[in-house]
Design goal:
The protein is an all-alpha fold. It has helices spanning 32-42, 54-61, 75-79, 90-100, 112-119.
């Protein structure tokens, strides 16, 4: 007889809906230590952070992205959240930026790489969906 191999479970969204507009954000008010911790949690392979400036961290993390290492964030919610990747379209990236920073203009002329840099690869995609497509 063949042994049944269990089918891997799909990543399930959190049972309660998340209002990302109320989540704590990456801003210039955070300390370099807080920003460094956030970056290391998003990308553990990053090294040489001791000499980096606050503007450098803000550009890498994406200004106004969700501060996932904030003490007020729920680990389960973060683990199930969709993240920004280079697979997103320009339209999706523009929508994310406009949600984070409504005052920004001229996004249509930006390249996809510029938009990804502004949003921050690995940051929570607050306008995205956790549902399977």
């Amino acid at each position: 007889t063949k042994k049944k191999v269990p089918t891997p479970k799909k990543r399930q969204p959190p049972s309660d809906s998340v209002n990302w507009s109320e989540a704590p954000r990456i801003t210039s008010k955070l300390t370099i230590v807080q920003l460094s911790h956030e970056l290391q949690m998003r990308d553990p392979s990053v090294t040489g952070l001791s000499s980096k400036t606050k503007p450098w961290f803000l550009s890498k993390l994406g200004d106004n992205s969700v501060w996932t290492t904030s003490p007020s964030m729920n680990a389960t919610t973060i683990a199930n959240a969709p993240v920004v990747t280079n697979a997103l379209t320009k339209g999706q990236l523009i929508h994310e930026i406009m949600t984070r920073m409504p005052e920004i203009k001229g996004l249509g002329s930006k390249s996809k790489d510029e938009l990804l840099a502004a949003v921050g690869v690995g940051s929570i995609w607050t306008t995205g969906s956790t549902s399977a497509t």
